[in-house]
Amino acid sequence: MARFDVYRTKSKRTPLVVDVQAEILSDLASRVVIPLSPVIAVGALEISRLSPNLVILDETYVLMTTDLAAVARRQLGPVLQNIETEYGDIVSNALDFLLYGF
User: Fold this and answer.
1) Are 9 and 37 in contact (CB under 8 A)?
2) CATH code of the domain containing 62
3) What does 18-56 look like in DSSP terms, one character per residue?
4) Total domain count, the chain
5) Which residue of 25, 27, 41, 75 is most buried, as measured by CB atoms within 10 A?
6) Per-residue b/e over 88-102, b at no fewer than 16 CB within 10 Å?
7) Could you give the 3-state DSSP secondary structure of residue 75?
8) CA gyration radius for the chain?
9) d(CA 46, CA 73)
10) pTM above 0.85, yes or no
11) 3 state DSSP class of 59
12) Per-residue pLDDT tens for 42-53?
């Protein structure tokens, strides 16, 4: 399990999530994730730094940072791609904004 992996989940409500947990903690039974919602379903959000748009497998999604959650590892399906190179800083900045306000 790697930080910034995008997973398909077993949940119909949040089918895609981004793993944001440190890799050193990969042996824990849960992972901290941020859901991804299709941009067509949620539209543009007011605070784009908090909820940026990301292109995953040629589809545009909104990173729903305010819905940060822990999920059991068993709820995660296959890794679809790792987005660290393209979006690692953007995701980290969204988390910083959520947790620290900057």
Assistant:
1) no
2) 2.30.30.110
3) EE-S-GGGTTSSEEEEEEEEEHHHH---S-TTTS-EEEE
4) 1
5) 75
6) eebbebbbeebeeee
7) helix
8) 13
9) 32
10) yes
11) strand
12) 877 778 999 999
Question: How far apart are alpha carbons 26 and 40 in whole angstroms?
Answer: 33
Instruction: Report yes or no: 70 and 30 within 8 Å, Cβ to Cβ.
Output: yes
* Distances, alpha carbon 58 to alpha carbons 41, 50, 63, 90, in Å: 16, 21, 15, 18
- Domain residue limits at 57: 5-100
Query: Which residues, including other chains, have CB under 8 Å from residue 45's CB and lie 6 or more apart?
Result: 51, 62
For residues 22-61, one letter each, b for 16 or more C-beta atoms within 10 angstroms of the residue's C-beta and e for the rest, the string is: eeeeeeeeebbbbbbbebeeeeebeeeebbbebebeeeeb
pLDDT digits (tens, 9 = 90+) for 1-21: 799 999 999 888 889 999 999
Q: Residue 78: how many CB atoms within 10 A of its CB? A: 8
Tokens of 35: 């859901």
Q: How many residues does the chain have?
A: 102
Residue 80 has pLDDT above 80, yes or no: yes
